């Protein structure tokens, strides 16, 4: 399976995340699954004219393009010219290159939240007029339009995440190489369901604190970060705590909140990222699939039932109270 | 004279285009173009200061921790936060992990594959080296990606994940490591040391760090030929005379790195053939040849503007032109090791100034120095004691900056806070220094100068690999540059 990987308005972090793959050295995994990188900006030998020749071969149909990956947002500005990113050595905008290549591709894959929905590149006043391949924030459309379908009949496959987990990319490409990814395997935002059917909350190691609404107040505290520190793990589609990062981490184990980076529009939450917006002391962003009144009632009940151990540990940066009877170490 | 445009330049971070004026086969002038604009300095305006910690790491996928650290430093200085010892150690470890991984990535994935260029097929070493370092398919790629991924578990432990952590805070680290995690961290570092000593150096890290002269390095490389990739590079570099390539007589600059109990591991300063202090107040950015409008005078970043303007007469890059007291400066591992007074780094630049060999050697020298320091910092962690101290409240108004060392050199964030919001935010990244365009005086940037005199063509009329060696020896990060 031939893969051409382009980068535009983004940080390159999805690639850097990807090469940290732990299911095997990336290059070996790809070779073993018959996935051939025609060109990748960080990994390939070919540079300059040789690289442009490869893109041209794909655009002209001389080389079959099985997968076009774009990492980074499409920069449509200034004034719709796309010239906020003119691809080196070609005097042609990346926007134009993507328009040439996407119709030739059997599959089109947007890697990361910039390429899927615009992401951080579209934050603030979005001066570069950044958008995703098939979304502009939460609005379907983007560069290629709502009706775009690649050669396979699929819409753009949106591997959202800022950055993406290495396995999300690898497993998507392997599924495509095996012809095992169907429209039914994508969720309503075009994301592969194998990771987007989960919530970041699933497998969170702070679960006991969540159950009792025993909350962290400062970075480093062990408690749940939903009440005060802006955590949106209960509302974010991803398996970050079921499929750990870098050998066992995640944002939540790292002591900082989930910012919902797999969702369109996460870059402009309408409040400071690490502070939970509240109305009358109650967090505004609660899980949407349970009645708010029940959530509040359960939270009040849980708070009154919180064991002192959980309450005190929530506001400490290491366990200070323990379950069960303990021998006093000073009396050994 | 002919004009050659080189790009897209892969195996660098981000997109890069270089125009070369060529006479009699040699580069007579170079123009470096960062061909993308992303707008972070505009995006950050009117946000609460703490939001910078979420947004700025996303400037760069390869040095996101460095971006975090610069913002955290600026915020800490604005509110008077003082991280506890564990917080300082955790920050050192996280930054060192990123810098070490970046040096390894640069050597194996970005730089060495150029020796598999067919232009070298007549060299006696070609077959073995191409087989080892060819991009993707060389034997080194899988071996090094595995070693690198194992090492990045340091980030899983210290920072939750990499890239784009939010663990570096003005008050310290949000990730308090407990006793068993400290052991796990130490074991991860020791496994990385084993990998480096076996695959990269074929020798102990301490022996590498104690190489003091170019002659000692050459003798070491002969003795370790075919045992380690570093020795392979040193021998190729001698064969191709890479010390004569990419020469640069500009000053070197380092903000100093890794605050320890007493002083910094790598000192702060400027090297101009002699030691000078670094005065951040002399940093100004010029936009004469950059796609920006507004005040044409060079401005201090405290009052810097970012007003994109396409079609400006003469402009050729989205990179601004920073100058240190009016001077072009080179920054990076070589500058850091020279200013840190490492004898080998000093010897490498004493004859030829900054050059391709010196830059690559300095990165691997620094890697060999960093890992033992990381082991030591890990042992100093005191589980149970705080990693984070709640900082004093952020003042409503402040002008502040954070200056740190990223893998590629000096990184500065300057922020103005008014009424609790960011009124101005200016970033000068390492590659902004190295890949600067000309300034109002017409003085070319560091890489533009280093490319002059480079052979431009190979025997078949393509771009000579020498051009790639010079450019990649600086390890450009264009995504940082075009923030």
Walk me through what this model shows.
The complex is a heterodimer of chains A (332) and B (483). Chain A is α/β, with parallel strands linked by helices and 332 residues long. Helices cover 24% and strands 12% of the residues of chain A. Chain A contains ten helices and 13 strands. The radius of gyration of chain A is 23 Å and the shape is elongated. The mean pLDDT of chain A is 96. Chain B has helices at residues 40-43, 52-55, 64-79, 85-111, 126-133, 139-151, 153-159, 179-201, 205-209, 214-223, 229-240, 333-339, 343-352, 356-380, 430-434, 446-451, 465-473, 478-481, and strands at residues 2-6, 17-23, 26-33, 168-169, 172-173, 251-254, 257-259, 264-266, 269-271, 275-276, 283-286, 321-324, 329-331, 398-406, 409-418, 421-428. In chain B, the strands form six sheets. In chain B, strands 10-9-6-13 form a four-stranded mixed sheet. A three-stranded antiparallel sheet of chain B has the order 1-2-3. Chain B is globular and about 65 Å long. At the A-B interface, helix 1, helix 2, helix 3 and strand 5 of A face helix 2, helix 4, helix 6, helix 7 and strand 5 of B.
